[in-house]
Design a protein that fits this description.
Length: 103
Amino acid sequence: MPDTSRDPVDHVRTTRQHAGETVKNGQNGPGLIAVGIGVLALVISLAAFATAHPTAGLIAAVVAVLVAGAGLGWLAFTHRRVREAERQWHTEHPGRPAEPPTS
């Protein structure tokens, strides 16, 4: 299988343009980790509220919102970069049909 790490769009093996983009594009790693930490902080927040520790729960909830929001922002940013690479690829290959966006 050829190395396609420089082009995150899979033009050959899938009918959906962005299938597997989140896993294939290595630049999504920090965003995925941040979302995971945000989910973990949310679980900690709920556990703190359930055990009558409202201050710790509130701090964990704020951390969860900030970190998960930053992670989702990172994923949106990298997705925009993928879409731009896709548009550039279609500009460089005018003979290939441009499929409508699926995401």
